[in-house]
Amino acid sequence: MNRLHRYLPATVWLKDYTRTDMQTDMMASVIVTIMLIPQSLAYAMLAGLPPAVGLYASILPLVAYALFGSSRTLAVGPVAVVSMMTGTAALQFAAPNTAEYLAIVILLAAISGLFLLLLGLFKLGFLANLLSHPVISGFISASAILIALGQVKHLLGIQASGRNLIDMMTTLWSNLSQTNFDTVLIGVSAVLALYLLRQHFKSILIMFGLSDHHAQLASKAGPVLVVVIMTLIVAAFQLNTEGVKVVGDVPSGFPPLALPKMDFQMAMDLLPAAILISIVGFVESVSVAQSFAAKRRQSIDPNQELVGLGAANLSSAFSGGFPVTGGFSRSVVSFDAGAKTPMTGVFTALLILLTLSFLTGAFYYLPKAVLAATIIVAVVQLIDLKSFIHIWRYSKQDVSALLATFFMVLFVGVEAGIITGVSLSLILFLWHASHPHIAVVGRVPGTEHFRNVERFQVETNCEVLTVRIDESLFFANARMLEDKINQLVSEQKQVKDVVLMCTAVNMIDASALESLEMICARLQSTDIRLHLSEVKGPVMDRLKGSAFISHLSGEIYLTQNQAFEALCHQEG
Amino acid sequence: MNRLHRYLPATVWLKDYTRTDMQTDMMASVIVTIMLIPQSLAYAMLAGLPPAVGLYASILPLVAYALFGSSRTLAVGPVAVVSMMTGTAALQFAAPNTAEYLAIVILLAAISGLFLLLLGLFKLGFLANLLSHPVISGFISASAILIALGQVKHLLGIQASGRNLIDMMTTLWSNLSQTNFDTVLIGVSAVLALYLLRQHFKSILIMFGLSDHHAQLASKAGPVLVVVIMTLIVAAFQLNTEGVKVVGDVPSGFPPLALPKMDFQMAMDLLPAAILISIVGFVESVSVAQSFAAKRRQSIDPNQELVGLGAANLSSAFSGGFPVTGGFSRSVVSFDAGAKTPMTGVFTALLILLTLSFLTGAFYYLPKAVLAATIIVAVVQLIDLKSFIHIWRYSKQDVSALLATFFMVLFVGVEAGIITGVSLSLILFLWHASHPHIAVVGRVPGTEHFRNVERFQVETNCEVLTVRIDESLFFANARMLEDKINQLVSEQKQVKDVVLMCTAVNMIDASALESLEMICARLQSTDIRLHLSEVKGPVMDRLKGSAFISHLSGEIYLTQNQAFEALCHQEG
User: Fold this and answer.
1) B107 contacts: CB under 8 Å, gap ≥ 6
2) Which of B411, B369, B438, B402 is closest to B136 using CA atoms?
3) Closest chain A CA to residue B287
4) Nearest to B394 among A399, A476, A510 (CB)
5) Contact status of B514 with chain A (Cβ, < 8 Å)
6) Which residue of B has its CA nearest to A134?
7) Contact A482 B297 (CB under 8 A)
8) In this structure, how many other beta carbons lie within 10 angstroms of the beta carbon of residue B20?
9) pTM score, two decimals?
10) What is the pLDDT of residue B2?
């Protein structure tokens, strides 16, 4: 039964599910649905897909996540960054709005789902840690700019495409003469309206007497209001005949249930993109889930989150959808609307299914410029200037990883940006670990404390050299330790004993062990003994059986003071 | 003047160079030359090159290293593993013993030299730390097997080739019927003779009355003796007319000085191989240099070593040679022969130049099977079973990196092996860092010490949760800390204060800082305060200006005991 709980978290909360829970969850699902429908249509457009695909991706994935996900609050579905990455990846292999393009996107969701599932089952979620915060921040900011810029064509009613800033600007510029002014009027007013509503709608609602909580909730309906009004205007004036592009016919009925077409070569070609989409989606999703879990003093299991998101993506692929993940804004709405359990997701899926069955006609006159406006207003907030300033102040190394990612995404592409950022983070970390703080220490007179000789007035002995290493010893700094000890001993010719003080050494890997053996042997060849002091318990446990300890020329002292006392008296 | 010393280490020792130094250096160079000549011929053959190229690579590079290298003892020139890597890389683009092949190899030396030089000038030597000890060990063992197997064709007098074990075995097997029995006889007796000499020659020489030191030195001439005797036998019986392949004509005269032919596309294609050759060569060389520096209480500067090796490879390229690096066995000979300064290298270069000018005729009858035998006997020792056993006992994680590298090199190729090994080391390290030891601690009664609640009987307070993290906080474990604190707080509902005890935190990067801010904000949303205790000086210095400290809901305590006292009394 415990295993069932672990692999199917839904069994935990379903057990205690009450009628009251059901009522609040249903209420919340109505609000989430109202918000999710225009988002789904917009993000499908962003990924270069027919609008219906966005709705398909908002049905089964929600149910799958409700069953397998570990967060009680997370709302999954299409999100901006993942949709853009999907579009960019698919564009390399087919033209948008073709059958091949759709097949590729579905395959992408399938591979991505499978990859997430495998990561989860093998508990490899830690691999997502490769994406450091500066890399994510730079990536999201640059993606937001690319997404916003990619939607400008819809605001102007022209054709344009491109995978990076320069391509996009060039194609936009060369088609600028074809601008449709009705479209511009609608698009720009939608952007302004959305922007103003976002800023002031809540206060206006409060002025009209709504409570803070209700105003907060109702304000989320603002974008929907703009979408409805603009659609009505286009319908009333038949602006679609004047060149304003509209969503048009959306096929009604159930999502097409089918296995994705397996094309092994294509799957291999898509793998790198699928891996990046999965990891970016997972990282975004898990941080949203963590925020909400903390608010309710719940906890989430990152590996189970991988399983949940994997199941969501696989079911998206099986029902003609595209890659999905947990979204921040819809999770906020769901949480604020009082959603108690993941059943909210199931109810939302049912409501979207109903919409797809009976209400697709309502989207006919919805102008694409308005969808573009909702995307632009949503993503502009993702541009993360605050993190940039914080990181800039805190660490020049971290900010360089952020900037490298940002500019690579903007000027080369999404994949190049992430790979650059991750490589740079690793190299900078390695640089840091390769240059550990190593101090020669001496005893503070009258105490048993040992401090850096360069910072404090301490007692030393010219025949005993004590070195404190402020880092775990592993392959990145093993060789540096050899250099450093060599150098110190070559500078201080009378030394007869070297003591390594290991207070901050949390681990010694095989490379470092080999280096310690080398250090010991080299010191011994010039009649210097090597000692250790203050070795931590777990480190000592592993050292015990090793050849290093049996060949060690000196002693292992419990405390540095014991080492100092013993060696100085010996020499004396 | 100090700058000159740094960039041209030769200026330091040349200043005090005496006539006595010169005499010992000259003596040593004679012994090194005798050993180096057959090695140079053999390693040129191993790289698929004409024998003369091996001699070219043993002239100017020695002079360049003497000027720019920081080790007083290192002897550079062609070495087995680098020669094999060179051959493997060149084989992808041309057939051995053609003009294109030679041009490619020279270009490889040039790129490799340039790369090493740049690494050195930009002080990027730490990047070599990516090669952990287990990866190097697995790589060298597998390479030794490939090299030995690659020489079997010369022992049998047949044709064979291949980049990995299976290719080699297959081509050997299919050509086995063409075996030349005279060649086998010579080759196998050479292997046996070399093996026995290596084991027993020194003791025999001591029996004949030589001192230990002189026997040690003379024993290094053993292989040369075998080479000379076998050459005489072939010449006497004219075995070259019976199908025994010999070195044949070696063009006499100076090495051809010329700029390498620049072919940008080819240079790009060769770059990955050149980078691996450079790094492997550097890692081998620097560890040899370190061993000898330690014996004389000297120290070496890894970045200056890069400059020295870079200069050596560039000058190899300019004089028709192939990639070189510091060799272990010849450095041992040089050291044992009493070489005092790098001038030994200059004298050796002169002697090889003399050989090339006047003695090339002596190599005519030298059988290739004997060169193959010297290679085989030399590389078989590189198979590092001892390290494997040590690492196996010490760490299953590290041994998996070793085995992955070993089998990938053997069955796929050198480059795939190194890339797999490095990636696996990084992933395993990341796994380790992502799962830091995090302990809930309490106070040992009657003391100010705090210990793991699971291991010790300690005092705790149900409203104060103290967590000790035994690792620096950075991107690899930042998210894990969020999970862990979330989970602990969700399990212990009365908690009002969380204290992070930072004794072992040597660094907090921007990702971890962001996570700490998130943790603080989430805890605050459920009215829990976050405190820090025992933050190290350098870590605190950087934290001071950050937003995290200004938003911190709790206090920063100097000691954990102060934190515990203050918070428990507050609650009480």
Assistant:
1) B260, B261, B262, B263, B266, B267, B270, B317
2) B402
3) A479
4) A510
5) yes
6) B511
7) no
8) 9
9) 0.80
10) 66
Residues in B closer than 8 angstroms to A435, CB to CB, are: 126
Encoded tokens for A240: 């679609």
**Residue A391 sits at the chain B interface (C-beta within 8 Å):** yes
- Using DSSP, state whether A72 is helix, strand or coil: coil
The two three-digit tokens of residue A356, written as one number: 């797809």
Lowest mean pLDDT segment, chosen from A91-95, B61-65, B213-217, B314-318: B213-217
Whole-number Å distance between alpha carbons of B203 and B201: 6
Beta bridge pairs of residue B193: none
CATH code linked to domain B438-571 = 3.30.750.24
**Are the Cβ atoms of B522 and A472 closer than 8 angstroms?**
no
Q: How far is CA A203 from CA A225, A261, A374, in A?
A: 16, 51, 21
Percent of chain B with pLDDT over 90: 50
Beta-carbon neighbour count of residue A336 at 10 Å?
Answer: 15
Which among B114, B548, B398 is positioned nearest to A546, based on CA atoms?
B398
Note whether B470 contacts A398, CB cutoff 8 Å: no
Which residue carries 């003379």 as its tokens? B218
Cβ pair B131, B125 in contact under 8 A: no
Cα dihedral value B412, B415, B418, B421, nearest 10: -50
Closest CA to A465 of A478, A480, A484: A484
The mean pLDDT of B255-262, rounded to a whole number, is 84
Averaged pLDDT, B436-458: 86
Burial A484-506 (b: 16+ CB within 10 A, else e): bbbebbbeeeebbbbbbbbbbbb
**Cα nearest neighbour of B296 on chain A:** A526
Number of cross-chain residue pairs from A and B with Cβ atoms under 8 Å apart:
212
Element (H, E) at A77: strand A75-77
Which chain B residues are Cβ-neighbours of A469 within 8 angstroms? none
Q: Please tell me which residue of chain A has the smallest CA distance to B396.
A: A510
Inter-chain CB proximity A437 and B506 less than 8 Å: yes
Q: Say if B493 is an interface residue toward chain A (CB within 8 Å).
A: yes
Contact B473, B512 (CB under 8 A): yes
Pairing mode of beta strands A450-452, A464-469: unpaired
Q: Which residues contact A269 (CB under 8 A, 6 or more apart)?
A: A93
Cβ–Cβ below 8 Å for B479 and A390: no
Question: Distance between CA atoms of B174 and B185, rounded to whole angstroms?
Answer: 21
Residues 294-313 of B with CB under 8 A from A: 294-295, 297-300, 302
C-alpha span between B108 and B356 (Å, rounded)? 24
Per-residue pLDDT of chain A (572 residues; tens, 9 = 90+): 467 777 788 888 888 899 999 999 998 999 899 889 999 999 999 999 999 999 999 999 999 999 999 888 899 999 999 999 999 999 999 998 899 999 999 999 999 999 999 999 998 888 888 888 899 999 999 999 999 999 999 999 998 887 788 988 999 999 999 999 999 999 999 999 999 888 888 888 888 888 888 888 788 778 888 999 999 999 999 999 988 999 999 888 888 888 888 788 999 999 999 999 999 999 889 888 888 887 777 778 889 999 999 999 999 999 999 999 998 888 888 888 888 899 999 999 999 999 999 999 889 999 999 999 999 998 998 898 988 998 998 988 899 999 999 999 999 988 889 989 998 998 888 888 888 888 899 998 888 888 888 888 888 888 999 999 888 898 888 888 888 898 899 888 889 999 999 988 888 998 899 899 989 998 998 899 999 998 888 889 889 878 889 889 999 998 888 999 999 876 44
From A38's Cα to the closest Cα of chain B, the distance in A is: 31
Domain parsing of chain B, residue ranges: 2-126+174-385, 438-571
- Cα four-point dihedral sign B162, B166, B172, B174: negative
